[in-house]
Amino acid sequence: MKFKNFIIVAALLGSIIFSVCGATGRLIGNDPDTKAAETVVRNYFKYKNEKNEEKVLSTLTDSFKSPNVVREYDDLESIKLIGIQEEMNNNIKGSYLKDGQGSVNGTTEKNLKVFKVTYRVKYKENNKSAQESGKYIWWFDVIRKDENSPWLIDDFGEL
């Protein structure tokens, strides 16, 4: 009887852990490359919320440091990352590599991580931003030049 109860409790705990990890977009045992690339995206939101332009720029590739990407601070009240998960759909990765910036900069699949990101942004009244206040789901393309290079955000947006 005790063994049967143990099995039931173990199964319930396993189900709970699996559900929580799935709901938060986090998987136990992510590889170091995925964790490093994910940290860059998390830092982007942290620095953007702090309105720290220098640190926001440190998360972006040189080709993605255009003024409209990072200079919305006057109208920004807050931005908060709600969820992040690695995008495993090869069509989305292939789109970046074949038709997007990857076709220009020569990024390989090994040096690309794509994340589906949910965030909430709040702007001041009468904002001049291209976005409205609200909740958004965007995809972030995070790349590195090679295994010894840092991960950096090279593109983001809606699909």
Structural class, from helix and strand content? alpha+beta
Assembly level? single chain
What is the domain tally?
A: 2
End-to-end separation in angstroms reads 53 Å
Q: CATH class of the largest domain, please?
A: Alpha Beta
As a percent range, the share of helical residues equals: 40-55%
User: How many beta-strand elements?
Assistant: 4
Q: What is the general shape?
A: globular
The major β-sheet equals: 4 strands, antiparallel
CATH architecture level-2 label of the largest domain: Roll
Secondary structure elements and pairings:
Elements: H1 2-24, H2 32-50, H3 53-57, H4 67-70, E1 76-86, H5 90-99, H6 102-105, E2 112-123, E3 134-143, E4 152-157
Antiparallel strand pairs: 1-2, 2-3, 3-4
Please, could you describe this protein's structure?
This protein has a 4-stranded antiparallel β-sheet with strand order 1-2-3-4. The protein has helices at about 1-25, 30-50, 55, 65-70, 90-100, 100-105; strands at about 75-85, 110-125, 135-145, 150-155. The model is unreliable at about 15-25 (pLDDT under 50). The chain folds into 2 domains: about 1-30; about 30-155, Nuclear Transport Factor 2, Chain: A, CATH 3.10.450. The chain starts with a helix and ends with a strand. The chain has about 160 residues and is of the alpha+beta class.
